[in-house]
Amino acid sequence: MRKWVLSGILATEETYLSHLEALLLPMKPLKAAATTSQPVLTVAQIETIFFKVPELYEIHKEFYDGLLPRVQQWSHHQRVGDLFQKLASQLGVYRAFVDNYELAVETAEKCCQANTQFAEISEVRKRVKGTVKVTRSTLVLHDLLKHTPISHPDHPLLQDALRISQNFLSSINEETTSRRQTFKKGENRQLLKDSFMVELVEGARKLRHVFLFTDLLLCAKLKKQIGGKNQQYDCKWYIPLNEMTFQGPEEAEPLTIPQVPDEELDAMKVKISHLRSEIQREKRANKGSKVIDRLRKKLSEQESLLLLTSPSIPLRFYNKNGKVMIRLRLRNQYFFCISVRHVLFFFLIQRYLQSKYTVSPQGFKTVSLTSMELQMLTSSCIKLQTVHHIPLSINKEEDESSGLYGFLNVIVHSASGLKQSLNLYCTLEVDSFGFFSNKAKTRVYRYTSEPKWNEEFEIELEGSQTLRLLCYEKSYNKTKQNKEDGDGTDRIMGKGQIPLDPQSLQGKDWQRTVIPMNGIEIKLSMKFTSREFSLKRMPSEKPMGVFGVKISTVTKRERSKVPYIVRQCLEEIERRGMEEVGIYRVSGVATDIQALKTAFDTNNKDVSVMMSEMDVNAIAGTLKLYFRELPEPLFTDELYPNFAGGITLSDSVAKESCMLNLLLSLPEPNLVTFLFLLDHLKRVAEKESINKMSLHNLATVFGPTLLRPAEKDSKIPANPTQPISMGDSWSLEVMAQVQVLLYFLQLETIPTPDSKRQSILFSTEV
C-alpha cells in the first residue's frame, strides 16, 4: 500500500513538473528580449509572471529525483520520510508564490490581450497553483501515514511533514477567505471576518452571526429553515465603520449583565456529557435512528443553551451618528456578551479601524444602504460566510474526536520571521466545551528578533481539541498598566492554532511542529499523557523524599501536622501571588517545577531562597504536583465513592450531614492539610476581582487533584491500544470531583469536635 501511494505521488509530480517546464520554456527568450531595444515584455512583467516558478521547479525536481529510485528499488524497509520532511520545510517558497499568484495571472492576461502568443502562457500559469499542490500533498500524506506502522522510522518524519503542511494550509485559508468579495457595480466591499456572537437585547441573550466587511459591520440572525428552503439571514442592524466607536469599561455607564451561576453551567455540561455517552451507547447497541435522533435533539438544545449562557465578557460599541437600524434600550449602542474566543474578533475590528489601510485614500467611505441594497448584502452572506456552523456536537463529523483528557506537555522553543527587535512572550490556550482558556505564559524575551524561550509547560486537558498560541509584544508603559489591566496594554503580534489529533499524539515521543502567524513562525514540541495513565500512582524512589510518599509518613517524619512543602508553597503564594492573574490555573515552567521538586525531595536547605527567586506560577505548579503524586489522594481511595455519592443528594440537610461526617472521617494528616489548604483557597478567591480566580475556578483546578477514584475503580480501559481520547466518562468523573471541593469551599464554617481545627491550625508544631 505504501508503494502504491508513492507511485501515485510520482505520477502527479511528473504532471506538475511538466506544467512548470511548459511555463519556464518561454522565460529565457523573454528575458533576453527584455534587454534589447524592442522588448516583448518589461523586466518587471517577466519577474511578476514567473515569480518563484524556477525555485518551485528545482524543489520538485529534487523531490522527484530522490523518490523515483527509492520506489523502483522498493522494500518494506525503504525510507522516504526525509524527502517529505524536506519538501514541507520549503513551504515558504509556496507562500511567496501564492501571495503573488493573482497578480501574476492578471499580468499574464493583460499581456495576452496585447499579444495573442501569450494566451498559452496565461493558461499554463493558472494551472500551476501552489495551494492546490500542497492540498493534494497533504491528502496523500494522510494516506501514507495510514499505511506506515508507528514503529517505522518514517512515521515521525511523515507526521512532522503533515503538521507543517496543515499549518501552512490553515494560514493560507485564513488569508484567502478574508479576501472574498461581494460584487456590486462600482464597489469593492470585502468580507474580512465572520463569527457567531451572543448579543444582549433588552436583557435577553440572542445568538447572532456578525460579518465584518471593509466598510461596515453587519449583525444578522439565521432564519429557521421551513419546508426545505435554503438558509436565509435576517439583518438586525449594521454600522458603517467610519461611524463606529468603542468604549472601555471605565468610560461606559454601569450595566448589570445577567450572569448564570457556574454551578448551573456545570449542570449543563453534566447533561451534555450524559447525552453524548447515551448516544454512543445507543449506536453500539444498533438501536433505531429515531431514538438517536431524539437524543441528538436534546443534545443540541443543551449545547445551544450553554453557548448562549456561557459568554460573560462585556463589549459595547456605538454608532457615533445615531443611525440605528433597530430600536435598542441601550440608545445608540450595541452590547455583546462574548467569550475569550471572540475577543480577537473585536480586536481585529479595532486594529482595522486604526490601521493605515482604508477603502479609499480619503478614508472609509460613508455608507448608506437602501433597503434593497441591504437585502442583497444580507443574502450574499450565505455564500460569503466562513463559519458555517454553530459550534455544536451535532454539527461535527461522526468520526470527529470528542477531545483529549489528560496532560499535554508543550515546549515553546523559539520564534523566527520578526523584522525588528521586540520584547516578546507567548501564551498557550486550550479549549473545553467550545471555550478557550489561558493555560500558560512564557517569560518575556527582551529586545530581540530571534527569541529562544525553550520553556516547557504541563497543561491539563478536559476534552480539548485545539491548542492555540498567541504572541505578544510586552508594553512597559507603567503609567497605563496596573494589576487589574493585566496584559491589556500589550500588543498582539499574531495567533495560530493546531488541532490536537489523538492519532498523531498517540506515541510517547515528542512531536515537533511549527505554528505560522502573520509572517512569524513559532517552533513547538508536544507530548501527551492520557488521564488514565497520568493518574497511575508511582511510589517514590527516594524513601526520604516527599513526592510520592504517604502524607502520614511525611508528617510523622517532620513532626508536623501539615507537610513542610504545603506550608512553604502556600506561604510564598500568599506573600506575592494572591493578585497574580490565573494563579493555580496558569502553568508554571516545567523545569522550574522539577527543580523545586528535587529540592524538596532532597531536603535542600536553600529551597526557600529558590522559591523567592522563581515565578509564582512554578510554586503553584509544584504544590499541585505534590498532591497529584500522592500515592493515595487526600480524600482517600476508601472514602472517594462516598464523597461522589454524597454530593448528589438533593436534600440540603442530609447532604451537609453526610459531607461533613465524611470529611471528619479522613485521617488526621489528610484532614488538617485539607483545612489548611481550604482556608488559603478562600483567601485567594477573595481577590477574584484581580486574580480572576473564583471559588469555582479553584475547585476546577484542585478537585481532580485532591479527589480521584482508586485505580481498580477508575475507568482505565482494559485494552491498552484503545484510543487515548476517553470521552465523556472522564468528564462526568471530573465534574463530580469539582462539585465536592466547591461544596466545602462554599461552606462558611466547618465545625469540628472540640474546636480541634483551631488548635491544630495554630499549633506551634505546624
TrEMBL record:
GO annotation, biological process: signal transduction
Domain C2: 388-514
Rho-GAP domain span: 549-743
Gene Ontology cellular-component terms listed: axon; dendritic spine; membrane
PROSITE patterns: C2, DH_2, RHOGAP
MF term (GO), any: GTPase activator activity
Keywords linked to the UniProt accession: Cell projection, GTPase activation, Guanine-nucleotide releasing factor, Synapse
SUPFAM superfamilies named among the record's database cross-references: C2 domain (Calcium/lipid-binding domain, CaLB), DBL homology domain (DH-domain), GTPase activation domain, GAP, PH domain-like
InterPro entries attached to this UniProt entry: Abr/Bcr, C2_dom, C2_domain_sf, DBL_dom_sf, DH_dom, PH-like_dom_sf, Rho_GTPase_activation_prot, RhoGAP_dom
Highest taxon above the source species: Eukaryota
Protein name, as recorded: BCR activator of RhoGEF and GTPase
Source species of the chain: Oreochromis niloticus
